[in-house]
Amino acid sequence: MTLALLHTSPAHVPVFDALRDAHHPGLALRHLVREDLLTRAGEAGPEAVSGEVRDLLAGAVADGARAVLCTCSTIGAVAESDSARLGVPVLRVDRPMAASAAARGRVVVLATFTGTLAPTLALLAEEAGDRPVDVRTVVVDGAWACFEAGDRDGYLDRVAAAADAVTDSDVIVLAQASMADAVTRTVTRIPVLSSPRPGLAAAAAAAR
């Protein structure tokens, strides 16, 4: 069985390969990397790239993908909406994380790319349903510049510092898959949730 993954950064490829090797041996991954989609979605909104996303996913399904996982939170909703049309499960990597976070009362969302905030907040609201959830957002200052410059340590250190600065929350959400490894650098006692591991697990189950 083959799972296609749509990324907007090549940095995600080794992350998901490592998770596959550790938790889903035998699962074939096909990586589709399109950095330009995030740039344009950030400038003009996710719907601006919906046609290209649909074509990419259709191509992956035509090539044999049993399911598709979008690892970009900014365009995740656009990708997910194509599931019925394509006839295979299309999942967004952050939905399992959001479901877990929405079960708590107070949530702080950390993001490094501002375009991620609106889709993440919409997803949390969807998962919360009628439950009252207090959600606050923080854009991590200077982190995205580090990411674009290839300074992974600087990026993760800034994310970890922002998480450690949170004091009044039941859970901290790392809105983007690229932020996941910051969990190992935090000292906060507040649970810090990231999306790659639970997202891949859900997609692997869908591909079976």
Shape from CA axes? globular
Which parts are unreliable, with pLDDT below 50 for 5 consecutive residues or more?
A: none
Mean pLDDT: 96
Strand order of the largest sheet: 2-1-3-4
Main β-sheet, in a few words?
A: 4 strands, parallel
Strand content: 15-25%
Kindly, what is the distance between the CA atoms of the first and last residues, rounded to a whole number of angstroms?
Answer: 7 Å
Helical content class: 40-55%
Encode the helix/strand succession as letters. EHEHHEHHEHEHEHHEEH
The number of distinct β-strands equals: 8
What count of helical segments does DSSP give?
Answer: 10
Q: Compute the gyration radius: what is it?
A: 16 Å
Q: How does the helix and strand content classify structurally?
A: alpha/beta
Short key terms for the protein model shown above:
four-stranded parallel beta sheet, single chain, alpha/beta, 8 strands, 10 helices, globular
Structure, described:
46% of the residues lie in helices and 18% in strands. It has 208 residues and is α/β, with parallel strands linked by helices. The chain has a four-stranded parallel β-sheet, with helices on both faces. It has a four-stranded parallel β-sheet with strand order 6-5-7-8, with helices on both faces.
